[in-house]
Design goal:
Elements (H helix, E strand, L loop, with lengths): L4 E5 L3 H13 L4 E5 L16 E2 L10 H20 L3 E2 L3 E5 L5 H13 L6 E4 H7 L7 E5 L3 E3 L1 H14 L3 E3 L4 E5 L6 E5 L5 E4 L1 E4 L5 H7 L7 E12 L1 H4 L5 E4 L11 E4 L5 E4 L3 E2 L13 H9 L1 H22 L1 H8 L11 E13 L10 E5 L2 E6 L8 H18 L1
Helix pairs in contact: 1-5, 1-11, 2-11, 9-10
Amino acid sequence: MPEETIAVVGAGIVGLATAREIAARRPGTRVVVLDKERRVAAHQSGHNSGVVHAGIYYRPGSLKATLCTRGVALLREYCQDRRLPYQECGKLVVAVTPEEVPRLEALYANALENRVPGVRQVTGEGIREIEPHAAGLAAVHSPHTAITDYTAVARSFAADVEAAGGEIRPGFPVGRIRRPAQGGVEVISRDGKSLVHADRLVICAGLQSDRVARLAGAGADPRIVPFRGEYMSVRPQKAGMVRGLLYPVPDPRYPFLGVHFTRRVDGTVEVGPNAVLAFSREGYRLTDVDPRELARVAAFPGAWRLARRHWRTGARELRGSLSVRAYMKGAAAYVPGIGPADVVRAGAGVRAQALARDGSLLDDFVVQHLGPVTAVRNAPSPAATSSMAIAEHIADAVLDRTASA
C-alpha cells in the first residue's frame, strides 16, 4: 500500500507539472489528479499563444521573474528530450511613439537585471533587419524567446504522471472539501458519488481557483475575474510578413501585454489577444453569459473600483472585440502591411485574473498554504512557461510539510 496520497485539483499545465514533480520525487506516493473536464489542458493551458517567455517583463526578485528564468531552462530541456515543438523564433518589443521610448528603456534595464539571454536594444533600422515588414522607432530584441505547443506539453506531463503510477481522474467536478477529524483531506465530487481521501491537497484550478480554495477554507480574496482574449489569424498570403514575435511596449498599469503578432509552431501567424471582461468563467464567446457570474462580479467592491479606474481602456478593448477594423487599428502600427482585410477571426482564451478588494490586478504568482492544503490563487502568464519551476516551488512546500506532519 502506498505510504501517502497527494491529490491535485486541476489538469492544466501547472497542476500536471506539479503532480509529475511530486510523483518523481516521492516514488510510492499515490498521486491523483482531479479535473471536471474530460480532457487535460481544456482551458487556459489549451487556449494560449504558445509563447515561451524569456523574463523581460517581470519585476526582479518576484516569483514571476525567478520561476520564469528557471522554468524556461527546464521546459527547453524537456521539449528537446521528448521531441516536442520548441522554436526560438525571437521577440521584438517595439516602441512606435516617442512617449514609449523611456518605458522601453526601463524594460531593457529590467530584462538585464533578470538576465534574459542575448537581450539587446535595436534602432528602427535594426528592427527591419530582424523583421523586414515591421515599423517602429526602437525595440528590445530577445533572440531566445521561443514558441511551443502547451497542449502537447500538458499531455506529455499527464503521461509522465501515469507512467510513474499516478492517476488522472477526468470528469470529477469538485463539490466539497472536508477536513475529517482523523486527518488529511476529503475531496468529494459535486454529485457526491466520488470521493478521494488524501494526506495533502494541491489546488491548481485556474479559472475556478478562488471557488475551489474557498471550499478548502481559504478566504474569499483574491477573487478571479475572467478576461477573454480574442485572436485574429493572418491570412496565409500575408503570414510570411512576420518571422517571429512582435509585441508592443506594455502599459505598466495592466498585467496584460497588449495585442501582438505571434508565429505559431504550425507556421500560422496570429494577432492578439485583446482583453475584455468575460461574462462567464469559461466564456470563450461574447454570447457566453452566466447571470450568476455577472452578479458575483457586480457584488464585489474590487470590480467597481477597477471599472472606475480603467473604464476608458475597457471601452476601447470592447470596441476591438466588436469590430475587426478597430481591433487591427493598433496592430497595424507594428506591421503596416497587415490590415483588417488580411485577418480572420480565430479562437479565444479566457484568463483567470486575480483581483484584490481595492481594485488592483494582482501581477505576481500567489500560492497560499492552509494546513494540508496548498492553493495556487493567481497563476497568470508566464505560468505555462514557468510550469515546471512552479511545480518545484509547490513540491518543495508540500513535501516538506508532509515530512514534518
